[in-house]
Amino acid sequence: MKKLLILTVIMSLAAGVASAQNYAFVNSQKVYQALPSYTAAVAELDSLASSYQKKIDAAYAELEKQYNNYLVVKNNLSADDQQSSEDKIIANEKKIGEYQQSVFGTDGVVAKKQEELLKPFTDNFNEAIKAFAEINSIDLVIDVASSPSILFYSPEKDKTEQIIIMLK
């Protein structure tokens, strides 16, 4: 409810600002998809993430196998051996979790690679938007791809194709 109220207030303010100023709509998703080098970078990133995920899945499968083997022999082990086996399983699970965090966490390998591969595109996109806005005296540019709450916009205000042309 609180989000809906905040969203309504923001949209009302944006509507008020937009009515008093020159504005344009751009679909950033469509712009990025029109750039072959961007889609290649995303494919490379997806491939990297997929290969890491396969390693993690294999490690978890091995951990599950280790745990199932432990369950089979548990009743034949002494209390100390049971504790030792459980500790090894828990340590392995923790190790896998830490590895997963190092790969997919906010400062992980994939996040760094994403920054390396995609930041140039976002920087170029932002510069193109800024240049387009300055050249055409546009005060407000709204990205319809990241604003799903926009229920209607005028197609003649959509400047996506012009941004694509600027970036190619």
Can you offer a commentary on this structure?
This protein is mainly alpha-helical and 168 residues long. The chain has helices at 2-20, 28-33, 36-73, 79-104, 109-135, 160-167, and strands at 23-26, 140-143. Strands 1-2 form a two-stranded parallel ribbon. Mean pLDDT is 86; it is low at 1-7.
C-alpha Rg (nearest Å) = 25 Å
Which stretches are poorly predicted, pLDDT < 50 over at least 5 residues? Answer: 1-7
Approximately what portion of the residues adopt beta-strand conformation? under 5%
Could you give the count of β-strands?
A: 2
Individual helix count? 6
Distance between the termini: 43 Å
Helix/strand/pairing category: mainly alpha
List keywords for this structure.
mainly alpha, two-stranded parallel ribbon, rod-shaped, disordered N terminus, 168 residues
